[in-house]
Amino acid sequence: MTYKSLPHDEWEDKTLQIVGKITIAFGQLEHVLKLAYKRAIGKPYSEAMYIIDKISGNPALADGLRKKFAIQRMDQNLEAEMNKIIDRILKVNGHRNFLIHGYWHKRISDDKLLVVKKGCIAFHIDANSLSRLEVLHREITNIRDTLNKFTRAK
Q1: How far apart are CA 16 and CA 28, in angstroms?
Q2: Could you give the 3-state DSSP secondary structure of residue 6?
Q3: Residue 95 neighbours by CB distance under 10 Å
Q4: Is the CB of residue 65 less than 8 Å from the CB of residue 34?
Q5: Is the pLDDT of residue 12 over 90?
Q6: Of the candidates 95, 102, 96, 97, which has an alpha carbon nearest to the alpha carbon of residue 121?
Q7: What is the pLDDT of residues 96-152, one digit of tens each?
């Protein structure tokens, strides 16, 4: 089925608020991911950031952290724990990308508010999707805090 859509800028405050919370929390998660990588390579901040800035994207940075952490710690239990954290990062990264890089619009045929990415409807903007976005926000903040605590020097 094809349908027409229009750009739409009249979003409810609760929609704008949760998208803003997700955006801020994910930015913080990205910073903690960089700090975790810095800790794994054992370099001073400015030197580590120079290295990290050459890595393209969160998936590549997370994969690099996985490898550096394994070499640094040489502990299968800690490595398994880090792998779980990184898998969670990659999952929320995909959801965040759909949300942030999707096309937000109103479908003319039924006035539904949608987010579409690569031709796929990510979700309708309704009470159910807002609830799922709250869950996503909590997951991002939980991963951020877990990664930060897990990679701090002991």
Answers
A1: 18
A2: strand
A3: 19
A4: no
A5: no
A6: 102
A7: 998 888 888 887 777 777 777 766 666 677 778 889 899 999 999 999 999 999 998
- Cα separation, 107 vs 128, in Å, equals 18
Q: What 3-state DSSP class applies to 57? A: coil
Neighbours of 139 (CB within 10 A): 17
Which run of H or of E encompasses 7? strand 5-7
Structure tokens at 135: 């869950």
Site of tokens 């701090």: 152
140: nearest Cα among 111, 80, 97: 97
Beta-ladder partners of 120: 117
**pLDDT tens by residue, 136-154:** 999 999 999 999 999 986 5
DSSP string, 76-145: HHHHHHHHHHHHHHHHHHHHHHHHHHSEEEEETTT--EEEEETTEEEEE-SHHHHHHHHHHHHHHHHHHH
